[in-house]
DNA sequence: GCAATGCGTAAGCCTAGGCTAACGTGTCTC
DNA sequence: GAGACACGTTAGCCTAGGCTTACGCATTGC
């Protein structure tokens, strides 16, 4: 039952990123969410379980459906975690970059 | 040589997060970086390769050392990617959350 | 030249974790 | 009750990817 680690890692996974975005527009049932993806419904259920563990999402039972929605407090904490990572030094670098010409020849490794 | 996917996933990995933070304070050699971690130097080299692929980091050769440093433009792009993820809806939810009582009983799954 | 240093790279191991198929469980309808 | 839904859960597969060990390759000092 390990289930990923921190909220940041939980939210970084591409499928879960999209899930969060979809849920941000309003509550959705598992089936509604699943049809937006190519993977099966159980896979979505499992992703939702990870997001629930991370406190980013919650479910409300209604009959035989379960409406998932985002937990605002969890999102706030995630935001804080990102901001903490994005501490002063990185911000200074960004400021520095935007001051220069924005488009510059990029250099990647061979 | 698959090497992760997007910059966001590259930066999400805990060790690489720390590497970025360390490099944000200034250029470092591989050995300098490696002694901050419990893993071996080659492991750090590999993480640096991933970050280089993602355009977040670059290396300057000097004798037999290699000084790694952050690529400001890459960091800016990463920031943009995060901001794009953190689109309007999620922001509204956060605003909503901060308006309510900040500390609330959290509810996780069993 | 030769050894030591600083690094990248290759081979291979091993676990995390994303996926599917199958099944179990509650709920609604008839 | 019986069937159909909507979902969670489990078992197991399979790949991504993080790790170490071993090695190769420049560079420097002697």
Write a concise keyword list for the protein shown above.
homodimer; 110 residues; alpha+beta; Arc Repressor Mutant, subunit A; 3-stranded antiparallel β-sheet; elongated; DNA-binding
Give a short overview.
Chain A has 110 residues and is α+β, with helices and mostly antiparallel strands. Helix content of chain A is 55%, strand content 13%.
Please give the structural blueprint.
The structure is a homodimer of 110-residue chains.
Chain A: H1 7-12, H2 14-24, E1 28-29, H3 30-34, H4 41-53, E2 57-62, E3 65-70, H5 72-85, H6 88-99
Antiparallel strand pairs in A: 1-3, 2-3
The first copy, chain A, binds a DNA duplex (30 and 30 nucleotides) through residues 2-4, 13, 15, 29-31, 39-43, 45-47, 49-50, 61, 63-66.
Question: How is this structure best described in words?
Answer:
2 copies of one chain form a homodimer. Chain A is α+β, with helices and mostly antiparallel strands and 110 residues long. Chain A has a single domain (7-99), classed as Arc Repressor Mutant, subunit A, CATH 1.10.10. Chain A has helices at residues 7-12, 14-24, 30-34, 41-53, 72-85, 88-99, and strands at residues 28-29, 57-62, 65-70. A 3-stranded antiparallel sheet of chain A has the order 1-3-2. In chain A, strand 2 and strand 3 (65-70) form a beta hairpin. The first copy, chain A, is elongated and about 55 Å long. The interface between A and B is large, with 41 and 42 residues. The structure holds a DNA duplex (30 and 30 nucleotides).
């Amino acid at each position: 039952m390990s289930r990923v680690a921190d909220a940041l890692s939980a939210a970084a996974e591409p499928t879960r990123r999209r899930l969060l975005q979809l849920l941000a527009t309003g509550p959705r049932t598992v089936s509604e969410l699943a049809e937006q993806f190519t993977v099966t419904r159980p896979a979505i259920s499992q992703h939702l379980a990870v997001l629930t563990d991370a406190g980013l999402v919650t479910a409300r039972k209604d009959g035989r459906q379960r409406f998932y929605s985002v937990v605002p407090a969890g999102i706030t904490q995630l935001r804080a975690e990102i901001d903490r990572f994005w501490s002063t030094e990185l911000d200074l670098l960004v400021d520095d970059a935007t001051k220069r010409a924005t488009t510059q020849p990029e250099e990647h490794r061979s």
